User: Fold this.
Amino acid sequence: MDASQYEGNFIRAASPAEGVLLLGLCRPPVNAFHTAFWQELGETFATISDDPAVRTVVLGSSLKHFTAGLDLADPDIQLVGRGEDEAPRRAIKWRKHVTQFQAAITAIEECTQPVIGAVHGLCYGLGIDILCACDIRYCATDARFCIKEVDVGLAADIGTLARLPKIVGNASAVRELAMTARDFDCREAERLGFVSRVVQGSREEVIVAACETARVIASKSPIAVTGTKHLLNHSRDHTVRDNLEYTATWNATMLQSKDLADAMEAFRMKLPPKFANLTKL
Assistant:
C-alpha cells in the first residue's frame, strides 16, 4: 500500500501493518476544523473507499489533541449567506453549506472499510460527529469529550444528534450532554458505550491499540468484513425483518465467494487463511 497518496495539507498518513492505513489529523495547534480541512477529510475517505489495498483505517491525531472542534474564525463560515438581504435566500446558502459538511463526515461512515477512531486529548464538538461516523472507537485515559455546540449558540448539526442516540442507547444521557455541553471523561464515555475500549496513556498508546485491532481485522476476508459493516449499518436504519431479508439477498451472492472456500480449507489444514484484495473499481 502506498500510504503517501493519502498525505494532504491537514492529514498525515502511514501504513503500520499490511492492509492498515493510519491517518493523523494535523492542523496545528489543536486540529480546529475550517472548510478546507473538513473537505479534505471527506475527499480522503471517498478515495480510500475505492482502494482495495486498504483493509482497515485508523483515524487519530498527529497533535496533542484529537480536535478542539470547529474553527469559529473560519472566514468561509462567516461569509455564508452574506450579501443576501432576504432570509430565505440566506437560508438556502446555509443549508447547502451544512449538507456538504454533513456529507464530508458521512464519508467516514460510508467508507467501504472499517474505520477505528483512536482518541486522545480533547475531542470537542465536531470531534464527536467524526467519532460517531467511525465503526469502532478507542480512547486514551487522557481523553476529554464535549458536545460543545450549544455553548456557541447552535444545535449540533453534522451528525452527533442523529447518530449518538443510536450508539449509546441512553436518551437521557445524550440529552443531558448535548444540552449542558459539559465535559465527560474516558470512563463515562466507556460506561455509556460511546467507546469500546479505554487505553492507559495518551496518543502513542491508543494508536498502538487501535492499529493492533486494525491489523486483526485486515487479516480477515475483505468480502466478509465489508459485508459485515454494510449489513450493520443497514440494520441500524431498518427493522429486524427488513434487515434479515436484505441480508439473505446479500449473502445469496457473497456466500459464493472464494474467500469462504479458502477459509474452510485453512481451518481444515489448521493454517492461517490468506485472502485476496477486493477488485479496484
Observations:
- The two ends are 16 Å apart (CA to CA).
- Residues 3-218 form a domain with the 2-enoyl-CoA Hydratase; Chain A, domain 1 fold (CATH 3.90.226.10).
